[in-house]
Amino acid sequence: MHDPAPLHVPPRRIGAWSLIIGAVAIVAVAFGYVGGWLAPHRLTPKKLVNQLQHDAGTFAGYRRNHAKGVCVVGHFDSSGQAQAYSVAEVFAPGQRTPVVGRFAIPGGNPYAPDSSVPIRSMALRFTLANGQQWRTGMNSMPVFPVATPQAFYAQLQAKQPDPVTGKPDPAKIAAFFAAHPETAAFRAWAKTAKPSASFATESYWGLNAFVFVDAAGQHHPVRWRMVPEASDVGSVANTPGGANYLAADLTERLAHGPQRWQLQVTLAKPGDPTNDATKTWPDDRRTIDAGTLVLERSAPQASGPCRDINYDPLVLPAGIEASDDPLLPARSAAYADSYLRRTSEEAHLPGTAAPKPETSR
Amino acid sequence: MNAAPDRFTLAARALHWLMAVMIVAMLFIGVGMVATVSARHEWLLAIHKPLGIAILLLAVIRLAVRVRHPPPPLPADLPALQKLAALASHWLLYFLMLAMPLIGWAMLSAGGYPVMLGDALRLPPIFPTSPVAFAVLRHLHGAFAMLLFLTFLAHMGAALYHGLIRRDGVFASMLPAASRSIDGDREEVDADKADRPSAARQND
Ligand code: HEM
Ligand code: HEM
């Protein structure tokens, strides 16, 4: 070997060093790929939540979606009828389970007027006696516009305000709907939907399918919704100009007594889609009345007990499981990211958004 | 010749390799699950929590084994700086394998989540609910995970350096008795070895 270098490195050690460096590099690159840093096209929870912020702005301490809302407290009285399908303790006959909930309107702007969207939402956390929890977030519409997180992301991108006009570009929204025919059922609903005057008069659909597990271990795909007892049209809403009439209406109603909903659980038949929230199930499906939700009081979200709850739809008790609906893991992942952002802001951690003065109210 | 042990006890070696696989798997599962919105997020998290608690239990046992059976000494000719690096990184690894699962458990407690290890198995909270504590602990869980990964990379690189370059028996001390030829095999004489001072440890 002709090696003029005074520092002679035997070829065997070059091989050994390459092996060591190669091994470390392979592990590091694999880690970078799995962690998404080397896979920039993967849809991540971060991207979804960033896009929510691009659409609505960043409001420190608030939820990145359904930012405007109000806390409610009450309980759920089980009828016992769902017990044959799910072993969850919340469905035992005569069982009363405490509930901390939240009404809200969709969108990331906590100052949006209540009339800006026709949709209202109800989120609930049931704290079971055995320490398990059931969390659910429901919307006041019978179908969701999209079936996949990718389509949801595309929809958010289409709705991003144009930097020049400050408003979403109608052409982009039209292009999104044209490319996504699965949105048809939702659009048909939205055409006739009007912003309701009250949270209390709305039905709230779980939209995503779940699976009940009975005592024999049998699985029953289900969807649920909350159907209100109150049916009158609120009076406050007809006052024009009020931007925050929903919370006022709720306080007024609760001052006169608790508000009630029936939890209706629909059982799927084989073949009913469990992975597509844009499709309803046929009307003749068996529906059971699982019990009554009783809401007794409300509290502002800034100081109420719902503020620091992440209504992650995959926080489930034994007896309720996730279905194969692809929206569910995406919601769970995105809500966790949103929750980390807003709690980090509450903690004033460095690098987080600073709270804005509350003048825009 | 057998004054000092030339390898870790069987229990220590078994725990080392079992936990090495578990911890590296946890690091990949962790960064993988928070970087996806697919069903992977859900089932990886379902593995993450019980596997993390299993690591916590094993780490406690391992520490007890470590205290009862001190490891074989490092080669006497190892430069002081490398010795210090070895010692510091080993204690850092012990600290992190205990701290990571405890932080994971505490942050879920602080966030008000039920700490579910399966469909029905629930651990009690170990921290009062607090959004501020949740945020701090959640960031700590991520930062310590990165520190653990970097320490693991350095540890793996150093182990290979001992096994392939220094060939001083340090790597073999963590291997089964039968697989000694990977490292510190005295029968294999070559120029590479000749230019290194021989290890003080008695390997044969
Ligand atoms: C992939 C699709 C979806 C994404 C990315 C998404 C994203 C989000 C985010 C980031 C939040 C704020 C969470 C927090 O900080 O606590 C939120 C809240 C909410 N979402 Fe979704 N969402 C999706 C689908 C749905 C669906 C299908 C429903 C209805 C069934 C729904 C109902 C709700 C409700 C009710 C809330 C408010 C919860 C509360 O009051 O705290 N979302 N969403
Ligand atoms: C050796 C033990 C553990 C290791 C190495 C580990 C590692 C990780 C890593 C790398 C992440 C991603 C961090 C990020 O990118 O921000 C993570 C997240 C997480 N870990 Fe762990 N972890 C361990 C134990 C635990 C335990 C015992 C629990 C709970 C009981 C837990 C619960 C979580 C949760 C809930 C997340 C965040 C999920 C999300 O935000 O969607 N971890 N972990």
TrEMBL record, chain A:
Its cofactor is heme. This is Catalase-related peroxidase. Has an organic peroxide-dependent peroxidase activity. It comes from the Bacteria. The keyword Oxidoreductase applies. The chain crosses the membrane at residues 14-38. One of its GO terms (biological process) is hydrogen peroxide catabolic process.
From TrEMBL, chain B:
The chain crosses the membrane at residues 15-36, 43-65, 85-108, 143-164. It comes from the Bacteria. It is a multi-pass membrane protein. It is found in: Cell membrane. Its cofactor is heme b. The keyword Zinc does not apply. Pfam families: Ni_hydr_CYTB. Its main location: membrane. SUPFAM superfamilies: Transmembrane di-heme cytochromes. One of its GO terms (molecular function) is heme binding. Residues 182-204 are annotated as: Disordered. Residues 7-176 form the Cytochrome b561 bacterial/Ni-hydrogenase domain. GO terms for cellular component: plasma membrane. Residues 191-204 have a biased composition (Basic and acidic residues). GO terms for biological process: respiratory electron transport chain. Keywords: Cell membrane, Electron transport, Heme, Iron, Membrane, Metal-binding, Transmembrane, Transmembrane helix, Transport. Belongs to the cytochrome b561 family. This is Putative cytochrome B561. It comes from Rhodanobacter fulvus Jip2.
